[in-house]
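Support case: user asked for a sample of complex input and structure output to validate their parser. Sending the pair below.
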Amino acid sequence: MLEIRNLHAGVNGREILKGVNLSVNAGELHSIMGPNGSGKSTLAQVLAGRDTYEVTEGQVIYQGRDLLEMAPDERAREGVFMAFQYPVEIPGVNTAYFLRAALNAKRKHHGLDELDAVDFLAFVKEKIKLVGMDERLLQRAINEGFSGGEKKRGEVFQMAVLEPALAIMDETDSGLDIDALKIVANGINHMRNAQSAIIIVTHYQRLLNYVVPDYVHVLIDGRIVRSGGKELAIELEEKGYVGIEGTGAATQPVTAGRGVS
Amino acid sequence: MTDHRQHANVYKADFAKLGESTVTPQLLTIRRQALDRFLALGFPTTRNEEWRFTNVAPIARTPFRLAGGDGARIDDRVLNGETLDPGWPRLAFTNAHATPACSSARVRQDSLVIESLAGRLAGEPRGLPPDLTKHASFDQEAFTALNTAFLDDGAYVVIPRNLVFEDPIHLIFVSAAGGNGDATVSHPRSLIVIEPGSQATIIESYVGLADGVYLTNAVTEIIVGHDATIDHYKIVREEPRSYHIGATQIHLSRNSTVSSHTISIGGALVRNNITAVLDGEGAQCTLNGLYVTCGREHVDNHLRVEHAKPHCDSREFFKGILDDNSRGVFTGRIIVHPDAQKTDAKQTNMNLLLAEGARVDTKPQLEIFANDVKCTHGATIGQLDADAIFYLRSRGLAQETARAVLIHAFAGESVEKIRPQPLRRQLQQILLKRLPHGELLQEAV
């Protein structure tokens, strides 16, 4: 589904990603962990198409196509979704209107009929239950006046509505209390299926207590220095990132996941 | 020699042709005084602080002839397009002359009056309505002086004491240049009196009939009695080569509530002089506005809110969306008189620039002579938020759709304040056509 090869990217001439290699297949859930400033969010933003980051080297192949050649909205219509670390408040834009426009843009792209307001509302009300949010939120402006936790749950809700093939969740667990964390985890687990893949970018291991990853990667200073199974997250929890670095286990980029040799 | 003097003879000649037979000596005197004042003042220049950012030289150097009412007729197409609700009382004017065929029947029952000013002046009782010309001073305002010199027709509305008049009253002012291509001017003059304890909604629509060079020089006086409420809308949608100078003069008495909305979406040069005098304790005045410009259009909203008595609140909320090489001006002057303690005044002006060439000058002017007051003002000039665009695109909305969504959301805050549904819907449709990529939104809605 997604193959990242020797990805270098930065901002204002400063290199942040220094050769990332990663392969993700349908049905997998990957967790990318790393300390602050390691390039986790940069990776997520580059995959979503944020143009403030400049890709200087490498390739990203998504479903057989060059992802980096695609505009952010085209990526979205092709099934890429990023849950923002800092979801943007957009006053004056009704959430239901926005989500219907987004969903219909995607459906149209795939040759499906657009949903009318009635069908959409029925569909979306089911989805909002998944994250335990009040359906009146649909009539509010996007993220406006939401608490930090509500914004994060809102991202998971949008993800549930848009049913992405590839979801990248950028620090979705940060700023959540334990109840909200469980709700978010439940939402993510609900969306796991054989056709789609999820990448969870996080600093902490705690979300992984509720969402069990197939693969864990450690990103330090713009490179994936170690990859492993879910036990790697536990090791990180015990030793910290310094401990991982100290092992010197991977000075060379490591690839993980099926289908990569 | 200033431009206006070059064309003073044009105005004098048309003044001399004004019909005097049906006019009272009192009005004749006022007209003459006003003409003299206009000739003495001349058109303002940018050296005049009140006109610093708005150059009316194109108006001064055009020999505008007084427009006739019969030359251009409102056809059904225009009228149908402008009719917001067939059930509402409606007065239509062509070049400031009443057009009865397009108006609903004149209303004169008990003390309720909805008719043309010319009809009132020609009928009984003789004499001027007591408030006419009382509030819109022409001493320092050349355009108001010119309007008053040619005072002839417009709307005359009186809502008598303790009457809640539910239906909005719609005043439609259609302007058109002369048939032979002459530049023409019309001077709609309206008087709206909301007597104590009553309530009404008034909509003024200023529209162009066909492309051409014309000047609409309008003055509307609104007198709001104590404990009365008015919801007022002025919509300016003139033609691309035309000019609109309009004065809205509002006088508020004790415990009265005014909300006045000024929406400008068309005209080469539009200047709205909006003045509110809070002249009784407990008066509340809200002035909202929206201006949408493109090409080389110029819109100037010039607000003056005068707190003359204590315990009054005023709110100003104006938003602008400027594209291409257009220009916006906002001046918000708030004057708090020495005994107007406990004044609460707030002013906000927000501007969205859609192109490099667009420009806005925004200027708050607070003159506070009382010590126990709350006055705040804020102005913003910005572009579309790149983070918001990216957020929308990351969900699948195309770039142009994302931009259109954000632009309409910006305008939406002003449009949502419009209470009469048919008017709000009309403006939403106009904005969809007028703002960039509105057609993408209709698709998405």
